[in-house]
Design brief:
Blueprint: H1 3-19, H2 24-37, E1 41-47, E2 51-57, E3 63-69, H3 77-91, H4 97-109
Antiparallel strand pairs: 1-2, 2-3
């Protein structure tokens, strides 16, 4: 996966965590874990309830950054749990980055539970 794609995937996973009711520190941990297990260096993440900033240095020495606005918020602990599990599986090499990306798509498309 290219550095830009990795950055966007990590930001999307952190955004999904925040939108699902996860705490800001959990969203930061999600993004940082994804970047770290894929070899990203000097990563920084800052999350609030309404936004997310993420940057890291790729293998080529270039710094990449992204900002995500959190426009919707809710409480879906099943999604929070599934995102956490996906990141743990990625970090322990149970799945690769492409499988994790597909899993995040499935998680985000799943119907909201009341």
């Amino acid at each position: 996966m290219q550095s830009e794609d990795l950055l966007l995937f990590a930001a999307d996973a952190a955004r999904a965590m925040l939108e699902s009711g996860g705490e800001t520190y959990r969203a930061e941990d999600v993004a940082m874990s994804i970047i770290a297990c894929q070899g990203g260096m000097e990563a920084e993440c800052f999350a609030t309830s309404t936004g997310l900033m993420l940057s890291f240095m790729g293998a080529d020495g270039r710094v990449r950054s992204v900002v995500r606005r959190i426009k919707k918020r809710g409480m879906n602990l099943e999604r929070v749990s599934r995102i956490d599990r996906m990141v743990r599986d990625l970090a322990t090499d149970k799945i690769d980055i492409e499988e994790a990306s597909k899993e995040l798509d499935v998680i985000e498309r799943s119907k909201e539970k009341p």
